[in-house]
Specification:
- With 395 residues, the chain is mainly β.
- The strands form 2 sheets. It has a 19-stranded mixed β-sheet. The chain has an 18-stranded mixed β-sheet.
- A hairpin with a 7-residue loop joins strand 34 and strand 35.
- It is elongated.
Length: 395
């Protein structure tokens, strides 16, 4: 049944084509509104509820389909519910606006869906819904998406993306600019971002493919994985592992309960965990690593003039360090409770000493200069072995 139609041969700045019909779909009644508006530089949608999908394409105008769905036995009761949820679509001076809100008391039986097609060249898209998922794809401009309860997806976005949800996951594919993402209860998955990445979740994991500039990620209760970061990286989690690939700058890694792994970094590295092992490879500068329970493995590839003072410390666990054969460094190594543990080195020049009685705790130390000495490398474990080895793969 067609309720209303406004047709025109051409669209002016304010004119639009619009068609509304109501039909039965299983146990529900659906009011479906389709329309066309002349496009503007931007597009904004605000809805009291409903899932939203915005897609960029080759069309010149904006087309939309809006569905209100009500589970009612009679058409009259369904029409009453649908009439209380009003939707307006209009063309402003520089943008197109769609607003949907309750004119009367909200009906708990009504759900809404918004399907919007805009020109790919749209400069900006802003979507806000108080209940439903949001998806935006194929926009050359920037995107700002928010929902009070639902997931957010964005892909093929030319400029920046801002996404905020109070309860759902965030999935971002390719983004040309910066990405600022926040969820209060879900995971975050990121593909490739051309700018800065800032991602935070209060209850989920974070996965990042490539960050062309700096990356800052924080989780209150999940693991973190970053494949590649071309700039500085900061990753913190209150309860999960941290697995990092190649970092083009420095890295700050912190977990309250999980292991830490780093494939490579070209700047200073800080790695701390309350419980778990730490493995840091291909380090070109200094590092400070600390764990309360777990082994530490670190490989330095820095040559002369690159290495800076470093400190590796574990309460319970072994420490294994790989150093280039030509690295000039001063070693300060210590074991608090030997208990059968020892300090070994493939380099000459270290002097080992031990303290303590035959039946009491014995401490062991190793000090010395390698290749004439240089910045200090401190190695400390309360209960474990310390091994200093020569790097085999590279100098």
């Amino acid at each position: 049944m067609i309720l209303g139609m406004a047709l025109g041969s051409a669209l002016s700045a304010s004119a639009q084509q619009r068609e509304v019909r109501v039909y039965r779909d299983g146990n529900a009644w659906v009011e479906e509104t389709t329309g066309t508006l002349a496009a503007g530089k931007g597009f904004r949608l605000q809805a009291a509820q409903g899932a939203v999908q915005v897609r960029g394409g080759s069309q010149q105008n904006i087309t939309y389909t809006i569905k209100k769905r009500v589970n009612r036995s009679s058409e009259q009761a369904a029409r009453h519910d649908m009439a209380s949820f009003t939707v307006t679509a209009k063309k402003g001076p520089d943008a197109v606006y769609i607003d949907a809100d309750w004119a009367q008391e909200r009906s708990g039986k009504l759900n809404a869906e918004f399907f919007i097609n805009v020109p790919k060249e749209t400069n900006w898209v802003k979507v806000e819904t108080r209940g439903g998922s949001v998806g935006v794809n194929g926009i050359s401009g920037k995107v700002d998406a928010a929902t009070a309860g639902g997931s957010i997806t964005a892909d093929d976005i030319g400029q920046s993306v801002i996404a905020n949800t109070m309860g759902g996951s965030i999935d971002v594919g390719r983004v040309g600019g910066d990405a600022k993402l926040e969820t209060q209860g879900g995971s975050i998955n990121i593909g490739s971002v051309g700018g800065w990445i800032s991602a935070s979740t209060s209850g989920g994991s974070i996965q990042v493919g490539t960050g062309s500039r700096g990356v800052t990620v924080d989780s209150a209760g999940g693991s973190i994985s970053v494949t590649k970061c071309n700039g500085e990286l900061r990753a913190t989690t209150a309860g999960g592992t941290i697995d990092i690939g190649d970092v083009g700058g420095g890295a700050h890694l912190e977990s309250m309960g999980g292991g830490i792994r780093l494939a490579s970094a070209k700047g200073i590295v800080s790695a701390n965990t309350a419980s778990g092992g730490i493995r840091l490879m291909n380090l070109t500068s200094g590092v400070r690593a600390e764990t309360m329970a777990g082994p530490i493995e670190a490989e330095f590839i820095a040559g002369r003039g690159q290495f800076t003072e470093s400190h590796l410390d574990t309460t319970v666990g072994d420490i294994v360090v790989y150093l280039p054969s030509d690295l000039a460094v001063t070693i300060r190594a210590a074991i608090d409770f030997v208990n059968g543990h020892t300090i070994t080195s493939e380099f000459e020049g270290l002097k080992k000493t031990s303290e303590g009685g035959q039946y009491g705790p014995r401490e062991m130390y190793a000090d010395g200069k390698i290749n004439g000495g240089g910045p200090i490398l401190k190695l400390h474990t309360t209960n474990g072995n310390i091994e200093i080895r020569k790097s085999k793969s590279r100098k």
